[in-house]
Recover the amino acids of this structure.
């Protein structure tokens, strides 16, 4: 009997999604997560409060969640904010881009969903009768040791409680600081943007009208992303709450973080040119430093990296999770297809993993460098120079007038 067990380290959205897809295909999976198991009460507390963080799910990610039987639960929760327009503009010049129904073939461009809402839907789906017999959940367990036994056997994983698990295929889905990547000896290329992103939730004077907005400022990007209405007061006055991701030089971000919430709100409103009027309320203020990173290789014998363990990009286009979900799709398709072609004898072959890497690493590299170039173009050291300003002004103006190009950009953003 062949060993076709898969071990996934990292129980976040990307890792849990891969576990669910493999379980749907009746593949044995163990999902290992260092975070403790959440009770129903824990989930309720997490869902009762508004999270300033939000994922801008592309149509490709939404379609994958539908296939997994997860999107139905997210929709039923009414904790998603669909957007049908995307408005991008620059403060120091002419030209703006507006993606909307008459540009994109789909009336829906994407949906903003809070992390806990997606994680809860995945957790619920993993308990369903058709998949639960194929998934072993190991929560609250840190991995103490990884050992590559052989190409035939795969990896032996030792948990903090002494439990040992052997799997033919080991998947690292354990985030930017991936222990799996480090233990496998895979190097990391990094780029420090010397920027900090301020995140918060704001209530604006004017409604967002299902539009995701992004102002390209000389100091960095400022994104205003629709949030779901969760309270009775929200629903009585809908579409006024939004998630903010404001990219700034580190020193400027720290100055603003030292201000009062009211002062920060006023600075935010001014920075986006009062696009939606004054900011009436602000909450859940947080920050994180920005960098881009990419593993020099996504795979080794019996091992693959997905999501943030493999790559991390600038948040200016909100594509981080979407790239991870495309990893999940590509890897699961490659594994299942090659397993079938082998007569159901060979699981997780190195040739399958290399094919996955060839599908995903070039695309992720292109996206990472594109976002870095855009960040440099608008907020880099030469961004204020006259030639670069002129390049931005002419570029945005001309692109906005070319409808086929706008459709192409909308399709790329959808991930389809």
């Amino acid at each position: 009997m062949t060993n076709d067990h898969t071990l996934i380290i990292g129980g976040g959205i990307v890792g849990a999604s891969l576990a669910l897809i493999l379980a749907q295909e009746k593949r044995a999976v163990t999902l290992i997560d260092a975070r403790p198991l959440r009770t129903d009460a824990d989930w309720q507390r997490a869902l009762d409060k508004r999270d300033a963080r939000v994922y801008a799910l592309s149509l490709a990610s939404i379609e994958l969640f539908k296939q997994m039987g997860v999107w139905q639960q997210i929709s039923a929760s009414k904790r998603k904010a669909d957007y049908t327009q995307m408005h991008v503009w620059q403060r120091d010049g002419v030209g703006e881009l507006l993606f909307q129904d008459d540009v994109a073939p789909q009336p829906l461009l994407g949906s903003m969903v809070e992390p806990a809402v997606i994680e809860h839907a995945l957790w619920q789906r993993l308990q369903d009768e058709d998949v639960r017999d194929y998934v072993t959940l190991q929560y609250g367990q840190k991995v103490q040791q990884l050992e590559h036994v052989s190409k035939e056997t795969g990896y032996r994983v030792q948990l903090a409680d002494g439990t040992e698990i052997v799997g033919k295929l080991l998947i690292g889905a354990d985030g930017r600081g991936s222990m799996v990547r480090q233990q496998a000896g895979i190097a990391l290329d990094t780029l420090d943007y010397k920027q900090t992103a301020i995140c918060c939730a704001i209530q604006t004077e004017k409604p967002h009208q299902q539009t995701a907005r992004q102002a390209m400022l000389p100091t960095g990007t400022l994104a205003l992303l629709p949030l779901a209405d969760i309270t009775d007061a929200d629903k009585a006055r809908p579409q006024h709450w939004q998630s903010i991701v404001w990219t700034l030089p580190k020193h400027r971000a720290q100055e603003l973080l030292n201000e009062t919430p009211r002062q920060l709100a006023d600075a935010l409103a001014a920075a986006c040119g009062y696009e939606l009027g004054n900011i009436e309320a602000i909450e859940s203020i947080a920050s994180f430093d920005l960098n881009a990173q990419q593993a020099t290789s996504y795979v080794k014998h019996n091992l693959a990296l997905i999501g943030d363990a493999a790559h991390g990009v600038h948040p200016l286009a909100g594509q981080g999770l979407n790239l991870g979900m495309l990893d999940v799709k590509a890897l699961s398709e490659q594994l299942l297809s090659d397993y079938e072609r082998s007569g159901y004898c060979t699981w997780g072959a190195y040739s399958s993993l290399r094919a996955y890497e060839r599908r995903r690493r070039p695309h992720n590299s292109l996206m990472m460098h594109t976002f870095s170039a855009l960040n440099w173009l608008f907020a880099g050291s030469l961004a204020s120079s006259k030639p670069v300003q002129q390049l931005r002004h002419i570029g945005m103006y001309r692109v906005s007038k070319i409808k086929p190009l706008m459709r192409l950009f909308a399709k790329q953003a959808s991930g389809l």
User: Anything to note?
Assistant: Residues 76-114+192-291+379-414 form a domain with the D-Amino Acid Oxidase; Chain A, domain 2 fold (CATH 3.30.9.10).
